[in-house]
Write a structure and sequence with these properties.
With 117 residues, the protein is of the alpha+beta class. It has a single domain (4-114), classed as RelE-like (YaeB-like fold). The protein has helices at residues 16-21, 25-39, 98-114; strands at 10-12, 47-49, 56-63, 66-76, 79-88. The protein has a five-stranded mixed β-sheet with strand order 1-5-4-3-2, sandwiched between helices. The radius of gyration is 14 Å and the shape is globular. 26% of the residues are buried.
Amino acid sequence: MKEKTDLKPVCWLGDTLKTLRSFPDEVQDDIGHGLFLVQSGLTPQDAKRLKGFAGVIEIVTRFDGETYRTVYTTKIADKVYVLHVFQKKSKSGIKTPQQDIDLIASRLKEAHHREGV
């Protein structure tokens, strides 16, 4: 296990932290644990690549019949950039809605801009 000082810093973009804090405690705990693993250089069990984006990962959390998603990247400046946190509302299919894809793309550009990449 890495020392606490070896953890990658987390950068919350937009309203991601505020949104996370609005979720049920169990969901916050699950997402927080997943992000801690990411900070430690590990990959959470429920993490998968987000289609259409290089180096962007999503963690899918299910609780009480609802689905929550956390989208992040670790490919910029050795930090964990949390790009989007949301509750999936659509019951039809698993595809991420276009407005969420657009927001993720915009925040990914913002992260690159912040780091001068």
